[in-house]
Design goal:
4 strands; 35% helix; flat; binds zinc ion
């Protein structure tokens, strides 16, 4: 049986309808717009639930490395950049020619273990400008918040 994208989408639509009662499936753009309005703390709760589940299932124990410690790998990444579209929390890069680049970045953190090819992601920490602030946030400050959380 050939299983191209359209038959896959039909199968997904069918599952959403029969399993969850969703009749009209929102488009990609609509989902992105809705997620943009969600505070990061809402996403953090989902990650917390996943970690708690991993803890109860003894998955976290497999990631202890030295005595009862974990290895946490942290790195920053950008996920939005535009010369026009922006919000109040966008980082701003002022170019010499007068142009502006607006951007969003985040700090990703994953539990790693040298014997496992899989990693356990923790909730990312947004690197965003605080409301009313004129200064850009930075990776170091985001790391402080992430580690404290
Ligand atoms: Zn923005």
């Amino acid at each position: 049986m050939q299983f191209d994208n359209s038959s896959r989408e039909t199968a997904i639509a069918s599952n959403l309808k029969t399993l969850y009662g969703i009749k009209n499936i929102p488009g990609d753009t609509y989902l992105r717009e809705r997620l943009d309005e969600l505070p990061a703390s809402e996403l953090q709760r989902a990650f917390t639930t996943l970690i708690q589940t991993a803890q109860r299932g003894k998955v976290l124990e497999q990631f202890t490395y030295f005595e009862n410690y974990y290895r946490l790998s942290i790195d920053g990444t950008g996920y939005f950049s535009s010369s026009e579209i922006h919000c109040q929390q966008c980082g701003e890069k002022h170019h010499r020619n007068g142009n502006m680049t607006y951007y969003h970045q985040m700090l990703g953190a994953v539990l790693v273990h040298p014997n496992h090819s899989q990693v356990l992601p923790l909730a990312p920490e947004p690197i965003i400008k605080a409301e009313g602030s004129k200064n850009n946030d930075c990776e170091r400050n985001a790391a402080k918040r992430l580690i404290e959380r």
